[in-house]
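task queued by scheduler; priority normal; single chain, no ligands, no partner chains; default sampling; output format set to structure tokens
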Amino acid sequence: MEGQSRILRENEAVYLPIGTDHKLENPGKIDLELIEVRTGPYLGEDDVVRLEKADALLFG
């Protein structure tokens, strides 16, 4: 989350306000299970901005 790093453990959560740039990584050896919960009047996928291409350009 914009310059922050957090380690979440089992049954922990994080809230990301709208427009927050974020990245998810799993440094562990156990598979990650992610449950995404969206709120608001519109929940379509077309309002999501993917940053993979920008990330690849910056970090190769």
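post-processing summary
- The two ends are 20 Å apart (CA to CA).
- The chain has one helix and no strands.
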